[in-house]
Specification:
The protein is an alpha/beta fold. It is 32% helix and 16% strand. The chain contains 28 helices and 26 strands. The strands form 7 sheets. The protein has a 7-stranded mixed sheet with strand order 5-4-16-15-14-6-7, covered by helices on one side. The longest helix is centred in the N-terminal third of the chain and has 19 residues, at 77-95. The N and C termini lie far apart (60 Å). The structure holds ligand MGD (2 copies), iron/sulfur cluster (SF4) and molybdenum atom. One ligand MGD is lined by residues 13, 106, 137, 169-173, 175-177, 179, 203-206, 208, 220, 222-223, 225, 300-303, 306, 623-624, 626-628, 630-632, 696, 735-736.
């Protein structure tokens, strides 16, 4: 039998490992790590291997589904799209554009369709009710970077391959494989760091796999990182170790003085009481950061989706800036991906709170309203109430706070559409589900994660297999929805949306050259020069050609384009991270806005969080936990990934003894939002007074059609997550939640 191996980037998580996929006829034989991929060098994880199982999963939808009288039936695309068209028009006519909400989940960032075709859809829906998983995730970092550097996606990445000191606050990249840091094989990269004499220090309320591999691990009480980070800044000033180096030209002196005053009260001693990190350890860490030639301070979920997440995410940047480590090889730096032309980010100035949510007045951030208010916006009557919801690659019933309330809210909608592979906890509420073709039948280019890569890198992966007859690519589905939202009907050709994107790009180029006469070229000629079979490929070709390494439509013959990139089956290494702030900075005045007003106010208002003993919490502080074989909520239908269900409550032996609970006993965990029951797992890897639960479980909801996941459902942690937000970023607080724990009766 004829066998061949094709190469592609894994689209499941931010690491973007190279995979070799062996095909025989039209079947996937096996998946393994691609040893020739310059970024991942053969590394991959069990989820990447499971791409075969995802592709073959009998529960994965192959045709649109329509729900009638509570039961789903298969439908054709024409019927499904026409039904959406009629209902969208009906709801908008009666209730206005804001009555239609859009929720985008995490996997959108892992598809070309998500990178290219979401923007036109959002524009054509014209609704203020735009939600994404960013507000249960990295929004605090986006907002901090928006203020500091001018754009929410100008996020510096730790140069883990060249740093001497890697300081990790609230992240577990040995398990998550890294986030806002595309670096396949973190364990290998950390080993190299240690081999060259460098160190990793981890600050986390749990002794995670990452913490176990670290040179030092400091336990910290959940939700108190902002206090410790303020103390680090305080020490930098006190010990005269503020030394921004080349960044000094980009910072106003006044900002540094104001900052020095603002942190003056936050000595390590003051912070130690709150964080339970000894003052000497905080001081030592601050001095190590200052003394290490090349240091990268990094923070993820534990610093963003925790109390004061906005402040912590900003303070991490501040420390990297004050020590001159930002925009420096070996410190943190902006990646320079091949598809983002230098200077293409408009220097408009950054602001949040440009509008507010209708019911509780939560601020807009980066054009979005927070996922934590979605439920109340659906259930609260009045002008602007959400009556229809479109979810795309999202499972907010599991991923967002107060899940029970959100689930009940979805049941009250007039109409709901989901673009998804499965009938799961969220999509079971949809009237129509539109499934994209299998994950390996799409071409792949990481529009988001090449911009967060620890090395500049580009890879295009063509579809591994042709999509099945009658299946649609994700971009086509999004384009159909866009045209429907534009009032052009269910039958309009999705290619029009792609043409629109290409024309917009071409007209931008011609405008930058002083108009068609001066440029001596038309939009049509530029578009006519493009390669690529599919619309996403042609748009990618355009972006690559005008990008920083591009062939500039032939003006730079050595540069790259889609055809050249495609020749590199394992992707193209574009070199290590560089210092290039002069070009990368996106603020209107080309300065780093070090200490924006909202952060000044936040420091003035700073209070010990509700989950803290000093706030009167006599119970526990609940945090989250990820496991290697999970990917948020959506891969538990793969037997190889869900056999050992890790959905247990981690609790310290001392606490377990006091409560009289043993391993595998059921415990009830109660917060302001509700109560759940979950098996206990006693471990001294968790700090006393803290308990942890993984999220993404709870697959036993009536109507879900996940046969494997349903057998081993676990419990949905967000049933007890209250809808509380960090005020700076409107991001949900998922860690540091006050709970009581008791042995189940
Ligand atoms: N296997 C697997 N990989 C994944 C995912 C998955 O579900 N499974 N999800 C992907 C996604 S969408 C994302 S966003 C990334 C997330 O990537 P990470 O942020 O690296 O992953 P987490 O496991 O959430 O790590 C957060 C850490 O913060 C700690 N923590 C909790 N509260 C606090 C606190 O208040 N302070 C401090 N300092 N630490 C705290 C937790 O103990 C935990 O170790 O992972 C991605 N990769
Ligand atoms: N308590 C707690 N809650 C959390 C977190 C936590 O740490 N603790 N983490 C948060 C984080 S970081 C995130 S990112 C969110 C994730 O929350 P969401 O992004 O809302 O949901 P996921 O669980 O990632 O589910 C993704 C959905 O997309 C579908 N899907 C997968 N691939 C594709 C595709 O290519 N196209 C389409 N159309 N659909 C696809 C899947 O079937 C699934 O229904 O959860 C958040 N919730
Ligand atoms: S680490 Fe992430 S990108 Fe790599 S194989 Fe696993 S899921 Fe895929
Ligand atoms: Mo995430």
């Amino acid at each position: 039998m004829s066998q061949k191996t094709v190469y592609r980037i894994c689209p499941l998580c931010e690491a973007g490992c190279g995979l070799g996929i062996t095909l025989s006829q039209n079947e996937v034989e096996k998946v393994r790590g691609d040893a020739d991929n310059p970024m991942s060098k053969g590394f991959c994880c069990p989820k990447g291997i499971a791409l075969k199982d995802l592709h073959e999963d009998p529960d994965r939808l192959r045709t649109p589904m329509i729900r009638e009288n509570g039961v789903f039936r298969e439908a054709g695309w024409d019927e499904a799209l026409a039904l959406i068209d009629r209902n969208l028009a009906r709801v908008r006519e009666k209730n206005g554009n804001d009555a239609v909400a859009l929720y985008l989940g995490n996997p959108n960032t892992h598809t070309m369709a998500g990178g290219l075709f979401i923007r036109p859809l959002v524009k054509s829906l014209g609704t203020k009710n735009f939600y994404t998983s960013s507000t249960v995730d990295q929004m605090p970092k986006m907002i901090a970077c928006g203020h500091l550097y001018g754009h929410p996606m100008r996020i510096p990445v730790p140069d883990i391959d060249h740093t001497d000191l890697f300081v990790v606050f609230g992240a577990n990249p040995f398990v998550s494989n890294g986030s806002l840091m595309t670096a396949p094989d973190i364990p290998g990269r950390v080993r190299s760091l240690q081999k060259r004499g460098g160190k990793m220090i981890v600050i986390d309320p749990a002794k995670t796999k990452t913490a176990l591999a670290a040179d030092r691990h400091l336990f910290i009480l959940p939700g108190t990182d902002a206090f410790m980070l303020l103390a680090i800044v305080n020490v930098l000033f006190e010990e005269k170790r503020v030394s921004p180096g080349h960044l000094a030209d980009f910072i106003n002196d006044g900002d540094i003085d104001t900052l020095e005053k603002a942190v003056s009260a936050w000595t390590p001693e003051a912070a130690a009481d709150i964080c339970l990190v000894p003052a000497a350890d905080i001081r030592e860490l601050a001095l190590e950061i200052a003394s290490s030639g090349k240091c990268a301070v990094y923070g993820r979920m534990g610093t963003s989706t925790a109390p004061h997440g906005g402040l912590s995410s900003w303070l991490i940047e501040v420390i990297n800036i004050l020590t001159g480590n930002m925009d420096r090889p070996g410190g943190t730096a902006f990646a320079r991906p091949a598809h983002v032309p230098d200077g293409s980010i408009p220097k408009r100035g950054f602001a949040t709170d440009r509008w507010r949510s209708r019911v509780s007045g939560a601020p807009e951030t980066a054009g979005e309203l927070p996922a934590a208010v979605l439920a109340e916006e659906i259930t609260t009557p009045g002008n602007g109430q959400i009556r229809m919801l479109i979810t795309i690659a999202g499972n907010p019933v599991v991923g967002a706070p107060e899940s029970d309330r959100l689930d009940e809210a979805l049941a009250q909608l007039d109409f709901m559409v989901s673009v998804d592979y499965y009938i799961n906890e969220t999509t079971r509420r949809a009237n129509v589900i539109l499934p994209p073709a299998s994950i390996i039948c799409h071409g792949h280019y990481d529009f988001f994660f090449h911009g967060l890569s620890v090395r500049n890198y580009g890879a295009y992966s063509p579809p591994v297999l042709e999509k099945g007859t009658g299946e649609k690519d994700k971009w086509e589905i999004l384009a159909h929805l866009t045209l429907i939202a534009k009032g052009m009907g269910a039958e309009a050709d999705p290619g029009q949306v792609a043409q629109g994107i290409l024309h917009e790009l071409a007209s931008g180029v011609i405008k930058s050259l002083g108009g068609p006469e001066k440029a001596g070229i038309t939009e049509q000629t530029l578009i006519g020069m493009l390669s690529g079979k599919t619309a996403p490929e042609r748009i990618l070709d355009f972006l690559l050609r005008i990008g920083p390494y591009g062939d500039n439509f032939g003006l730079n013959p050595d540069g790259i384009n889609f055809d050249k990139l495609s020749e590199f089956a394992h992707g193209m290494d574009l070199g290590p991270l560089q210092s290039w702030i002069e070009k990368a900075i996106a603020t209107p005045d080309n300065k780093i806005h070090l200490f924006p007003l909202p952060y000044q106010d936040a420091i003035n208002r700073l209070e010990v969080p509700p989950g803290h003993p000093q706030s009167g919490n006599r119970g526990f502080s609940l945090i989250g936990r990820r496991h290697l074989r999970t990917n948020n909520s959506w891969m538990h239908n793969i037997p190889a990934l869900s056999a050992n269900n890790p959905c247990t409550l981690h609790i310290h032996p001392e606490n377990a003894r006091a409560l009289g609970v043993g391993n595998n006993d059921m415990a009830t965990v109660t917060s302001d939002a509700g109560t759940i029951s979950v098996p206990v797992e006693i471990t001294d890897t968790i700090m006393p007074g803290v308990v942890s639960l993984p999220h993404g479980w709870g697959h036993d909801m009536k109507g879900s059609q996940l046969r494997v996941a349903g057998k081993n459902p676990g419990v949905n942690a967000n049933r007890i997550t209250p809808a509380i937000m960090d005020p700076l970023s409107a991001t949900a607080v998922l860690n540091g939640i006050p709970v009581s724990v008791a042995k189940s009766g």
